[in-house]
Design a protein that fits this description.
236 residues, mainly alpha, Rhopdopsin 7-helix transmembrane proteins, 76% helix
């Protein structure tokens, strides 16, 4: 097994710990944003697990899980969690969530009805380098992926950087500033790797996913770390 094929196993391990940490915090504090982050991270983890499985053997259902949750939906659900964290008007967040649920159901239906060419699969290559040969070139589900990823990129990266900026401007909680920057950097790394994959450079996807999982997990731990005494903002 090559190094490229081992990387999804590492990403899956990191994501499993990350997911447990987020759902544990949700159990303690509640909050719709934590629930949605947990759902999005679970999708990310399922995608990584599917990659690890497909490095060893073929299974059409595992492939569908990989594409639907790993390639299409997870970024949008993570971003939706950030929308709930930052949105001042709940009606806007609820409306966007309804659209996301509807779009996810449509994408799931399209994925389930997409014919797959199993004979094109080989365990010698990462699935990110051969999925184009397995799926029809004009499969409708592939047309939906950019919309989910763009929405996720804007909301997750934009929300994290905006939160970091607000805290930095008030000069409080420097750990949360760094944490949000790391979350944004992680999201950008997997977004860049996904873009390269769509351009035919799938060998960078697994490195990007492991980098993203690690950076976002560290960022989450820093951003949720609570000091014993909240610092007073500096006076101008």
């Amino acid at each position: 097994m090559s190094v490229q094929q081992i990387l999804p196993f590492l990403s899956t391990a990191v994501m499993a710990i990350f997911i447990l940490a987020v759902f544990r915090r949700y159990a303690e504090r509640r909050g719709t944003h934590l629930l949605l982050w947990g759902i999005g991270l679970t999708m990310f983890g399922l995608g990584s697990f599917a990659e690890a499985y497909l490095a060893l053997a073929w299974n059409p259902w595992i492939f569908r899980i990989w594409y639907l949750f790993g390639a299409a939906l997870n970024a949008a659900w993570l971003g939706q969690g950030t929308v709930y964290l930052l949105a001042r008007r709940r009606a806007v967040a609820h409306g966007l969530l309804a659209l996301l649920v509807l779009g996810s159901l449509i994408a799931a239906y399209l994925m389930l009805t997409t014919p797959l060419e199993a004979s094109a699969y080989t365990p010698a290559r990462p699935i990110s380098e051969q999925y184009r040969a397995i799926m029809p070139p004009r499969a409708p589900v592939r047309m939906t992926t950019p919309f989910f990823n763009i929405y996720g990129l804007i909301t997750l990266v934009g929300g994290a950087l905006y939160s970091a900026y607000l805290l930095w401007r008030r000069q409080i909680f420097p750990n949360r500033v760094i944490g949000n920057v790391l979350i944004a950097a992680g999201a950008l790394s997997v977004a860049a790797a996904s873009t390269l994959t769509r351009l035919g450079l799938g060998q960078y996807l697994y490195v990007g996913e492991l980098t993203a999982a690690t950076l976002m997990f560290i960022g989450f731990l820093l951003a949720t770390q609570r000091p014993a005494v909240a610092p007073e903002p500096r006076k101008a």
